[in-house]
Design goal:
Length: 142
Amino acid sequence: MMGQSHAISGALVYAATASFLPEKVFGTVPGPSEILAGTLLCAGAALLPDVDHQDATPAHLLGPVSRALCRLVGRLCGGHRHATHSLLFVALTGSGTWAGVTRLGDGFTYSLTFVLLFLAGRALHLHPPGHGPTASKRARRR
């Protein structure tokens, strides 16, 4: 499954459940802007299992730094589609997110939100066309 497919599936699962699940779990109904934000955040979060692959979308987040981190995670987890594609990984990322938000506060929350939105934007191609400011002149002419 490619990054775009991961992101779309995460977005669809959230969008399909956002109108009734939060009310049953939290006793509140999200508004349209909250549903949109949650859909984009879940699209980004759906890419996290691929943090074990050096060529996946998360590896392109911070260039060589994130690529090396993804390579390291892949080695520690036994390769692509092993530990990061398990229910244990879901439980660990969920509890780690909860702990970060409750114990570390706004800085963690804003950073995580930025990373997930950036990942969603990359995977769903929600960015201007082109290769960015470092594109070669030849690539810009095409």
